[in-house]
Amino acid sequence: MDELPPLPLSSGAGFATVAPQNAILDFFFPGISVLSTAVEKYLHIDLNIYIPLVMLLGGLVFVWRYFSDYVWDIVQSYLMSVVDIRVDDEIYNMVMAWVSKQRFSQGARRFVVNTNLNSRSWYLWRYREDEDDDDEEGANESGGQASWEKKKKRALAYTPTFGSHWFWYKGRLLMFRRTQNTQAAAFMTASEREEISISCFGRDPWVLKELLHEARQEYMKHDENKTIIYRGTTKSGSTEPVWQRCMARTSRPFSTVILNEKVKKDLIDDVTDYLDPATRRWYSNRGIPYRRGYLLFGPPGTGKSSISLALAGFFKMRIYIVSLSSVTSSEENLASLFSELPRRCVVLLEDIDTAGLTHTREDGNQVPNSDVAPNNTATPSKSRGQGNGNNNNNNTNNNQPIGRLSLSGLLNILDGVASQEGRVLIMTTNHLEKLDKALIRPGRVDMIVKFDLADAEMTAAIFRAIYAPLEGDKVRAFPSPAATTSSPGTSRALFKSRAGLPTAEEEKAREAEAAEAVRRKEEAIAKVDILSKEFASKIPAREFSPAEIQGFLLKHKRNPEKAVEGAEIWVADTRREKKKEQELKEAQAKREEEESMKKAQEEEGEGKKKKKKKGKKERRSNRKTSSTKSKSRKKDESGSEESSSDGESSSEAESSESESEREAAATKKRSRSAAAVAEEKTTAPAPAPAAEAEPVVVVVHPPPTFTVDTDKANGASLDAQKNTTPREADSGYGTP
Ligand SMILES: Nc1ncnc2c1ncn2[C@@H]1O[C@H](COP(=O)(O)OP(=O)(O)OP(=O)(O)O)[C@@H](O)[C@H]1O
């Protein structure tokens, strides 16, 4: 066996025998010379001849690593088109929905799985989670079970993981790139911290635009027959105002909002006319701002929001809702929100009465008599008059910002020079009388619609709307003789039992089944109609809102007879509850009033105390000066004493006499001034003057009867003060 050559790096002598290229290789790849010697010895392959090749490859890799990014940037900049997709825009959801359906996405070996593909970004938050897909499977099943079934059926979505992914679209090679933004703020959620882009070779990005358009179209299909609702709010973690997409609801048919038919028709006709492109041209030709405003007013729960949603759904417009009573509705925020509105949309301004007029929705109850009126003509003068009358009270501080929104600010936002044209503005209020005239003048509000508590007709209509069978409803058989005498061959059970019969008979049975369904439906409608009248007769007119009645009916949603039975009890219970609520409210208001009065009196008392203290100080300093004066006078007198010792006793007596005289005079003076103060107090509850706080006065002129009544004193009622001596006032305020 041949002897192995000495290890190249084991000793200084060994190192000297190693070829120079091996030494270099060993430097970069330790142990390579040992390996090459072993390979040469046992496999008879000389690795040394490949060394230049290996080094060249290594060099190339090294160079590529440094230059690939640079080269790629150049290729992207000059030879490719790229679209970056923002995660905080709705297009993110559209593109991701599209991508998840592509083959390259479904076949990816490394992927991200989601139950919800949408951006978790602030403004899309909750999207789809709260959609009412009640037309999907499982809707018939009851409550929680149905939603659980629905969740189980919801498909998982697979999207490619971070990195670059190539795919073909319309014969072009495109690249989908998903990267993580490491510089994004830490509070952002995972999906907010990612960035996506799609690129294609070539300088014309038409293929990318087509892809985006297709993604959008597919996505929009989902929103067909839905009313998409946005709410004005602030971005999470900041004060920046944004429109947050909060829901996509199945559009509400107009027929489900119970309102005077003429009013409804007028409203729809007016909006239809306004949205007509010819009207738009008409406005612009005449230089009139293309805007239309509607004011819906009435008590809570009478259908104002419902009709706004129905309008938006009917005209296939998005609805943007902002409540003026919310904390976010400052002037700047509102202006910013309005500037971001699309051209064609419905803007719903809720609680407009809070705009610089009042804080609460509870007080005030006057409503005018009209149902609907073009603002410039038919609004009843009574309502406007009353409104204005009240306004006089409320509007004294119209332009004072409440919260941070002033009336003038709101008016500017609504129709200032910078405000959007083309939108339908709907304002709602519970208190029309509290609105400023300027806010509802024609141009801002072109139609006023009144909503009222339910009358008998409305109550019956609500009943019918809830119980009358609709398309797709399972019709419950009402117990009636007709139902029991129906042909036995037409029953569902019999139909099932004949399932295997020849086609003609089966056809016949099916027709009979359909006829039976129609008969049942008609029967149910007739029955519900009778019950609705009975129900309406039990509910007092104009006492309950449609929302309240609907709430009660929903408790018996599958049993109209029970609803009719329980109506009277419900009326009595609700009245009792309302009364209790009213009493509680009044007691609360009274308590608050008393507390505020007490506070005011305490503050007044504090003021008096301070004045008294000040008076005392002044008097003390006065006394000091008078005592120094009398001392100097005494000095003079003692001087005269020295000159005639005979007259000592007489002069002493004189001085003591004059002293007592002086004191008596001072006391008289003080008591006179105290009396004057007491007299003064009978006309105005002014704080006690300094003299009355003088302890000497209390000692010299004690009141004949004296009771300490802190309540009275604190109350400082005029009558009490009339009869109080200074002492009483003192004790009342705690003077020792
Ligand atoms: N006229 C109506 N027709 C049909 N449903 C109504 C009507 N009024 C109220 N409802 C029902 O009552 C509920 C509340 O109605 P809605 O929110 O539209 O009232 P609102 O007048 O906007 O109340 P608020 O002033 O408190 O905002 C809804 O579920 C709606 O279906």
Which keywords apply here?
ATPase_AAA_core, alpha/beta, 25 helices, single chain, 4 domains, binds adenosine-5'-triphosphate, ATP binding, Rossmann fold, ATPase_AAA_CS, 14 strands, four-stranded antiparallel β-sheet, 736 residues, disordered C terminus, eight-stranded mixed β-sheet
How would you describe what is shown here?
Residues 608-623 have a biased composition (Basic residues). The chain crosses the membrane at residues 12-35, 47-67. Residues 359-401, 576-736 are annotated as: Disordered. This is Mitochondrial chaperone BCS1. Residues 366-385 have a biased composition (Polar residues). The protein has 736 residues and is α/β, with parallel strands linked by helices. The chain has four domains: 12-73, no CATH class; 79-140 and 149-222, no CATH class; 236-452, P-loop containing nucleotide triphosphate hydrolases (Rossmann fold); 457-558, no CATH class. Helix content is 51%, strand content 12%. The protein has 25 helices and 14 strands. The chain has helices at 12-17, 20-28, 32-43, 51-79, 90-100, 103-106, 143-153, 206-222, 261-275, 277-285, 304-314, 331-339, 381-394, 407-415, 456-467, 481-484, 492-497, 503-538, 546-555, 560-643, 648-683, 695-700, 710-715, 718-723, 726-732, and strands at residues 80-85, 111-114, 157-160, 163-169, 172-180, 194-201, 226-234, 241-250, 292-297, 319-323, 346-350, 372-374, 424-429, 447-450. The strands form three sheets. It has an eight-stranded mixed β-sheet. A four-stranded antiparallel β-sheet has the order 1-6-5-4. Strand 10 (319-323), helix 12 (331-339) and strand 11 form a beta-alpha-beta unit. The radius of gyration is 45 Å and the shape is extended. The N and C termini lie far apart (123 Å). Residues 7-16, 122-143, 357-403, 480-491, 639-658 and 671-736 have low confidence and may be disordered. The site of adenosine-5'-triphosphate has 15 residues, from helix 11 and helix 19.
